[in-house]
């Protein structure tokens, strides 16, 4: 059994203090310890993007980051993304564009898209495609996800 | 309220938002991985480390002694277990022999996943190695060990089909060609990994939270495997993170979780890792296929002789039955008077194949459409004219017995060719083959036929619906149909709203609980919109008739003079609102004869079921499509880029335009992966790339431009004229890309996938075409 470490960080705008095992991933922390199940396990090795979260504004695969490394940082999950104006615009655009099928990859795409919008990196088709290249989707063929992000980047859903 | 209003616009063909999309996009949807059951234990499975071996001994004593472990089971603990799967050749926990690396030897239930994993590491298994049957050639050798009792020659299944006389067809041919094609392993890669939660209630009833695509038939299968009464099994399907055919069979992990729940008396949750998902999920069936075809000088097809051998893997699931679909494409996509088809599915020590979107049709279409192109060239016709000459039309009954009541195939061919500028580009690119420079363009065409009106795989193809309307005019639609992300819940709600003149918000769909929903044969064969849609319409029409009868009585008007629109009872002719529906229903509910619960079943219309020679009709309607792919091939690197897909799909009628576009686009990109990037590398029974780093799914930068046209043939039996479309878009892509590479380079590649190394070798004469090793 591993050693517990005390950490303090901000999660979706709320300061948190807790003890986490040294070998716990941020994905496990979010899902198992904090009950934030919007962040998904898709592969556990940083290849699928289903667990994408924002750490100090950077998009990160939560499965590849130790929970102890959240200490002193600011985390935003999909739950935090959709609580904000950009997230709501993205959610509406994903819904209106038909970007959601089974939906399992969708939270990761939502977080990554909010990151692209926040960085001003959703300016065109090619930039959006490159920006979501680390996220896998098996249902949609990506077309409507790209459309949704472009719509949100232009300021709203088209429904 | 008596103001007139314009007739409510039809919902059919509109872009309807998926009902569950807002919660999915918000991360609020709870998949099986997200469900917490109080008191649940966590289970893990110990799999074989040998490919083929006798199990000499299993020592679980150290694992049992680990604190936090509640049960460690092997086959010895469940002597009552029964074989599972399509072939019933597969015990969940192996007794004395393992036949593949995925084989389940023991399982642990513990307080946490970590403890369960630690316990697995303490289990000691002693094996005695047996010879590995690494491919069908080894498995068919005279001295090969027999993998299953009663299966001489390691033959799992055979299929034979014949029409006409192929010898006569060959005599009548001016051109005869023969080639061997090799189709590779790929796997579903559902983004949500497999999982199950099993628990017994105090009365001993089994509750399963399961991702199954076939809840009702699987109740019976679980009951048989466990020796319990099927009536005591309830299956709830949480939202499913992708399926694509992978959840059409039951697999060992499901009974194993049930065994553990029974033995521990606790709920048991079992989830795969991604690596496990690659190692222990079904694959698409790998096929070696020999095709001999002929035609007359005028382009009329004369015969096809097909032999295939399928690597069945170690056990039999639905993959072994894909020849049932393959032979339809071979006999009936184009008019061919003489056909002979033989398949054997051969046991090996490889991973075993299940069903996967398209169900054998990708493999058959790959071969058939290569020959359509080669024959066309041999007789000096262009590929479009040659296909049009042989393409089926509405009203035909094929020698196999398939009846094409609606058929937009010729329109699909003409539309896809015109929109892609196929003929001009094909000629221009062919003329550029010898031009300087490594990068060449090519364009290729392929077409498909697939079931679009259900599939008569079982004795019937039915689906039930229960529909109730509450006194606020809110409809609850209880359907046997399963939602796997494809949008069935939305399209069913849409069809009901169309009948009852209600907005989408007025319908709640209940579709995931066998204790509530009526019977259905599962989500497969592109059947749900057609079968469940017809069933839902039937229930809605019953409700409509009851409401209008009551309104007629109240108003003194005839039922024919009344309608439902905009949430009101209206005068049909003028649209004048007579009653607000909720208020009217409250009145009915307080009368003593409302009965606002409707039940219906839809079964496919009577037809000639296929007989033992596979003659007969398999679907109430058939879907057609032509897809044209344009590629860029770099002969210096072997990289093939898919630039554009132009598709024309006979879908009967577009119901939800947003949903159907999503199905087509997703299918096209899945077909692109099959053709260009995905390759489950199976090497002497070992999967070499069980992860997304080495098993390449298509990512967003690589998707092609897509130009999709829907051909609306308004099928007479389809719900509002629609036909099924779920599988269709994935079927032609690899075949069309192969033809495009040929157009670009003059090189025909007979084996998939078209990965850079494979294409480079083929272009530089360093890859021998596949040889037939399937026996005489």
Explain how this protein is built.
The complex is a heterodimer of chains A (159) and B (776). With 159 residues, chain A is of the alpha+beta class. Chain A has two domains: 4-77, Beta-grasp domain (Ubiquitin-like (UB roll), Roll), CATH 3.10.20; 82-153, Orthogonal Bundle (DNA polymerase, domain 1). Helices cover 36% and strands 17% of the residues of chain A. Chain A has six helices and five strands, in the order ββαβββααααα. In chain A, strands 2-1-5-3-4 form a five-stranded mixed sheet. Chain A is globular and about 45 Å long. Chain A starts with a strand and ends in a 6-residue tail after the last helix. Chain B folds into three domains: 21-28 and 462-602, Aldehyde oxidase/xanthine dehydrogenase, molybdopterin binding domain (Aldehyde Oxidoreductase, domain 4, 2-Layer Sandwich), CATH 3.30.365.10; 48-130 and 194-271, Aldehyde Oxidoreductase, domain 3 (Alpha-Beta Complex), CATH 3.90.1170; 287-393 and 407-455 and 611-763, 2-Layer Sandwich (Aldehyde Oxidoreductase, domain 4). Chain B is built from 20 helices and 28 strands. A seven-stranded mixed sheet of chain B has the order 3-5-1-12-9-10-11, sandwiched between helices. In chain B, helix 14 runs parallel beside helix 15. Residues 1-5 of chain B have low confidence and may be disordered. Chains A and B meet through helix 3, helix 4, helix 5 and helix 6 of A and helix 1 and helix 17 of B.
């Amino acid at each position: 059994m591993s050693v517990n470490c005390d950490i303090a960080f901000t999660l979706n705008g709320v300061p948190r203090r807790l003890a986490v095992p040294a070998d716990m991933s941020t994905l496990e922390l979010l899902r198992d310890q904090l009950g934030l199940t919007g962040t998904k396990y898709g592969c556990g090795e940083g290849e699928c993007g289903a667990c994408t979260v924002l750490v100090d504004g950077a998009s990160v695969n939560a499965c590849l980051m130790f929970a102890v490394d959240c200490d002193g940082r600011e985390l935003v999950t999909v739950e935090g993304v959709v609580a904000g104006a950009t997230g709501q615009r993205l959610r509406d655009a994903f819904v209106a564009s038909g970007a959601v099928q089974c939906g399992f990859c969708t939270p990761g795409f939502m977080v990554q898209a909010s990151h692209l919008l926040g960085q001003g990196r959703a300016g065109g088709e090619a930039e959006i495609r490159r920006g979501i290249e680390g996220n896998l989707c098996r249902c949609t063929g990506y077309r409507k996800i790209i459309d949704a992000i472009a719509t949100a980047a232009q300021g709203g859903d088209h429904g | 309220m008596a103001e007139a209003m314009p007739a409510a616009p039809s919902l059919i063909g509109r872009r309807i938002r998926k009902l569950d999309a807002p919660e999915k996009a918000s991360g609020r949807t709870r998949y099986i991985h997200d469900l917490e059951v109080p008191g649940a234990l966590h289970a893990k499975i110990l799999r074989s480390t040998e490919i083929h071996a006798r199990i000499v001994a299993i020592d679980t004593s150290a694992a049992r002694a680990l604190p936090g472990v509640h049960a460690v089971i092997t086959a010895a603990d469940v002597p009552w277990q029964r074989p599972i799967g399509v072939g019933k050749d597969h015990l969940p926990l192996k007794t004395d022999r393992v036949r593949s690396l995925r084989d389940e030897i023991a399982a642990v239930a513990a307080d946490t996943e970590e403890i369960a994993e630690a316990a697995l590491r303490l289990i000691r298994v002693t094996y005695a190695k047996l010879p590995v049957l690494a491919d069908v050639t080894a498995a068919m050798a005279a001295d090969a060990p027999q993998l299953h009792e009663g299966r001489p020659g390691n033959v799992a299944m055979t299929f034979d089909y014949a029409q006409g006389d192929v010898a006569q067809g060959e005599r009548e041919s001016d051109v005869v060609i023969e080639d061997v094609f090799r189709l590779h392993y790929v796997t579903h890669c559902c983004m949500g990994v497999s999982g199950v939660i099993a628990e017994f209630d105090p009365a001993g009833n089994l509750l399963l939270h399961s991702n199954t695509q076939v809840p009702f038939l699987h109740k019976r299968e679980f009951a048989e495997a466990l020796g319990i009464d099927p009536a005591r099994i309830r299956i709830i399907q949480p939202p499913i993170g992708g399926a694509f055919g992978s959840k059409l069979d039951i697999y060992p992990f499901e009974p194993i979780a049930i065994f553990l729940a029974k033995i521990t008396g606790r709920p048991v949750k079992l989830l795969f890792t991604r690596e496990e998902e690659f190692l222990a999920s079904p694959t698409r069936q790998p096929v070696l296929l020999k095709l001999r075809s002929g035609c007359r000088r005028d382009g009329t097809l004369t015969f096809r002789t097909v032999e295939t051998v399928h690597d069945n893997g170690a056990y039999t699931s639905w993959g072994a039955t894909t020849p049932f679909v393959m032979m339809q494409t071979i006999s009936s996509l184009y008019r061919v008077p003489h056909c002979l088809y033989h398949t054997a599915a051969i046991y090996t020590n490889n991973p075993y194949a299940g069903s996967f979107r398209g169900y054998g049709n990708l493999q058959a279409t790959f071969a058939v459409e290569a020959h359509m192109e080669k024959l066309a060239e041999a007789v000096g016709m262009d590929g479009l004219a040659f296909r049009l000459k042989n393409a089926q039309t509405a009203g035909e009954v094929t020698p196999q017995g398939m009846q094409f009541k609606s058929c937009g195939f010729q329109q699909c061919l003409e539309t896809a060719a015109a929109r892609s500028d196929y003929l001009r580009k094909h000629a221009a690119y062919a003329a550029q083959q010898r031009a300087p420079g490594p990068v060449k363009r090519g364009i290729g065409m392929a077409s498909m036929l697939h079931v679009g009106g259900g599939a008569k795989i079982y004795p019937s193809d039915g689906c039930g619906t229960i529909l109730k309307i509450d006194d606020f005019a809110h409809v609850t639609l209880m359907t046997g149909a399963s939602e796997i992300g494809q949008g069935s819940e939305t399209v069913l709600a849409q069809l009901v709203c169309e009948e009852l003149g209600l907005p989408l918000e007025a319908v709640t769909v209940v579709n995931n609980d066998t204790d509530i929903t009526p019977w259905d044969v599962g989500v497969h064969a592109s059947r749900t919109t057609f079968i469940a849609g017809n069933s839902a319409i039937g229930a809605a029409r019953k409700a409509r008739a009851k409401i209008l009868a009551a309104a007629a009585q109240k108003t003194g008007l005839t039922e024919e003079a009344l309608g439902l629109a905009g949430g009101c009872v209206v005068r049909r002719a003028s649209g004048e609102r007579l009653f607000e529906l909720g208020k009217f229903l409250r009145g009915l509910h307080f009368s003593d004869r409302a009965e606002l619960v409707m039940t219906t079943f839809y079964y496919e219309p009577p037809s000639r079921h296929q007989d033992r020679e596979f003659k007969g009709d398999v679907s109430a309607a058939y879907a057609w499509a032509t897809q044209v792919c344009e590629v860029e091939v770099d002969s210096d690197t072997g990289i093939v880029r898919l630039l554009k897909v132009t598709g024309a799909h006979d879908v009967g009628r577009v119901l939800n335009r947003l949903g159907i576009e999503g199905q087509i686009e997703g299918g096209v990109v899945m077909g692109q992966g099959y053709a260009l990037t995905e390759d489950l590398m199976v090497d002497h029974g070992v999967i070499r790339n069980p992860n997304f780093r080495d098993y390449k799914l298509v990512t967003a930068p690589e998707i092609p431009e897509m130009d999709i046209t829907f051909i609306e043939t308004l099928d007479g039996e389809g719900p509002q004229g629609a036909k099924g479309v779920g599988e269709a878009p994935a079927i032609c892509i690899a075949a069309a890309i192969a033809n495009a590479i040929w157009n670009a380079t003059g090189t025909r590649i007979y084996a998939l996938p078209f990965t850079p190394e494979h294409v480079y070798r083929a272009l530089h004469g360093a890859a021998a075409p596949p040889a037939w090793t399937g026996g005489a």
